[in-house]
């Protein structure tokens, strides 16, 4: 009985550790991708500014509106 309970405790600890790691990875992936997309959006806007001054229609074309 004690051996079975020890095994059950071990399995529970492994499952909990896996769940914690899964949440950590999901957070890292989400935060990393979000940060990169925001940075990309800022860079695209910055790159489009000089073009928008010389060609006013370029911002509309780039955004697809």
Give an overview of the whole structure.
This protein is an all-alpha fold and 65 residues long. The chain has one domain (2-63). 92% of the residues lie in helices and 0% in strands. The chain is built from two helices and no strands. It has helices at residues 2-54, 57-63. The mean pLDDT is 84.
State the shape.
rod-shaped
Beta-strand residue fraction:
under 5%
Instruction: Give the integer mean of the pLDDT values.
Output: 84
Low-confidence stretches: none
Helix content: over 70%
Instruction: Write down the secondary-structure element order.
Output: HH
Structural class: mainly alpha
Quick one: how many beta strands?
0
Q: C-alpha Rg, in Å?
A: 25 Å
Q: What count of structural domains?
A: 1
Distance linking N and C termini: 69 Å
Count of individual helical segments: 2
What does the largest sheet look like? none
Question: How does the SSE layout of this entry go?
Answer:
Layout: H1 2-54, H2 57-63
Summarize the structure.
Helices cover 92% and strands 0% of the residues. It is mainly α and 65 residues long.
Descriptors:
single chain, 65 residues, Sig_transdc_His_kin_sub3_dim/P, 2 helices, kinase, 92% helix, mainly alpha, protein dimerization activity
């Amino acid at each position: 009985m004690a051996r079975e309970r020890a095994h059950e405790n071990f399995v529970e600890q492994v499952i909990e550790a896996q769940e914690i790691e899964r949440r950590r990875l999901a957070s890292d992936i989400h935060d990393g991708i979000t940060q990169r997309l925001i940075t990309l959006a800022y860079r695209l806007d910055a790159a489009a500014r000089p073009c928008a001054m010389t060609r006013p229609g370029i911002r509309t074309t780039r955004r697809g509106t």
